[in-house]
Amino acid sequence: MKNAAALLFRSEHDSSSDATRIFMPSSSSEIDSGIEKKPLIPRTTSYGTSNSSSKQKQRRRRVASETSIVTLSLGGSRQSFGRMTIAPSETFLITRLTFKLLTYLGVGYRWIMRFLALGFYAFLLMPGFIQVGYYYFYSSRIRRSIVYGDQPRNRLDLYLPENKNGAKPVVAFITGGAWIIGYKAWGSLLGLQLSERDIIVACIDYRNFPQGTIGEMVQDAAQGISFVCNNIADYGGDPNRIYLMGQSAGAHIASCTLLQQAMKQSAGETTSWSVSQVKSYFGLSGGYNLFNLVDHFHSRGLYRSIFLSVMEGEESLYRYSPEMVVKDPNTRHAVSLLPPIILFHGTDDYSIPSEASTSFAETLRNSGAQSQSILYEGKTHTDLFLQDPMRGGRDDMFEDLIALIHAGDAEALARDVSAPPRRRLVPECMLRLARKVSPF
């Protein structure tokens, strides 16, 4: 992917499908116009399966100069020493599971190179990780490691806005990590960003392989979502404005969880939370048809034998492929219970191709669900979640997400227009080099 310059206009062009949008760079001659326009997202009201005859209005957006700054919200007093002792214990847990994982992977040339690339990639982004980590451990606006269940790693982190007036919208977020290195702290950058926009974020941790398989991951996610739905009002959240979001493997886990919950309700089972409590589902760079991804992952180093172990065997691929489950005519009633589903993806994503999102969105629409995919031209698997946010200013995916969450709230939308751009966390040269060496 070519990284964007410090000042850049972007325009949105509709594709042939009324439910897929691709953002592409506009001509460089527009950079000198000096006009800054806040993007509008009319598509939030254009769900459905029928083709719309009206044309979407073209919109342009200008990414702020990298000299624009906004104070990183590290405010609040430091946490107590007792609370800080959680960090070493969690570090030990991650280290122990990493070594256990290596016994499954073996120490082949390909994995050695990938681990080296991952280490160099993390080193290049370290300036951003240090700042976000400081915020994560010292901010009084984070409630870390809240227990939501009785299984290992049944914990979640809450990111609370500084403004405590009124009930806030809530995003329950399932982090990615290839089903083997996921961790709730990976969502701290997103939690920081959204809490600055008056949104509560709950980053839900879950058991990874080999500590657990996909069944346990879905079970943990369901318990975490249940905790959010039933307790978020105690933390200032609005139980009527809860959004579910997942990234990469987390998007797969969250979609499986949502669909299985809908199937339980359709069968008349008693549940601790309802899919009707989820206002919308946002999937970021996710995979939803495992049959199409087994060989792809194998070629990229997540070997077939390991992947099938994570997914509880080849016979379980159907059950944990949301796209295949939605195609089953017997699940039509369960699919009708699903909330609107919006899938974000970069066109240069080589970890999980963007076709995973466009195909799933089309399958959902064909089955009567409200769904759309939003594509970002030239963006990779990590651009949308790491490099772009650390670049500062404004980025398309984040602004689209905010607009969807605040849709219908005129006051919140007005605050978004005047919100200062985020400050840069990592120098541009390091971001570009990190993108080249990224193992994802």
From TrEMBL:
Q: What is this protein called?
A: protein-S-isoprenylcysteine alpha-carbonyl methylesterase
Upper classification of the organism = Eukaryota, Viridiplantae, Streptophyta, Embryophyta, Tracheophyta
**What Enzyme Commission number does this protein have?**
3.1.1.n2
Q: What class of enzyme is it?
A: hydrolase
User: What organism, scientifically named, is this protein from?
Assistant: Perilla frutescens var. hirtella
Locations listed in the record: Endoplasmic reticulum membrane; Golgi apparatus membrane
Q: What residue ranges carry the coiled-coil annotation?
A: none
- This protein's GO CC annotations: endoplasmic reticulum membrane; Golgi membrane
Q: Which residue numbers delimit the BD-FAE-like domain?
A: 156-364
Q: Does the keyword Membrane apply?
A: yes
Can you state which reaction this protein catalyses?
A: [protein]-C-terminal S-[(2E,6E)-farnesyl]-L-cysteine methyl ester + H2O = [protein]-C-terminal S-[(2E,6E)-farnesyl]-L-cysteine + methanol + H(+)
**Signal peptide range in chain numbering:** none
Region Disordered, as annotated, extends over: 40-64
What does the record give under GO molecular function? hydrolase activity
- What SUPFAM superfamilies does its record include? alpha/beta-Hydrolases (SSF53474)
Q: Which Gene3D superfamilies match?
A: alpha/beta hydrolase (3.40.50.1820)
- Which keywords belong to this entry? Endoplasmic reticulum, Golgi apparatus, Hydrolase, Membrane, Transmembrane, Transmembrane helix
Similarity section: Belongs to the AB hydrolase superfamily. Isoprenylcysteine methylesterase family.
Name the InterPro entries for this protein. Answer: AB_hydrolase_fold, BD-FAE-like_dom, GDXG_lipolytic_enzyme
Topology in the membrane? Multi-pass membrane protein
Q: Which residues cross the membrane?
A: 118-137
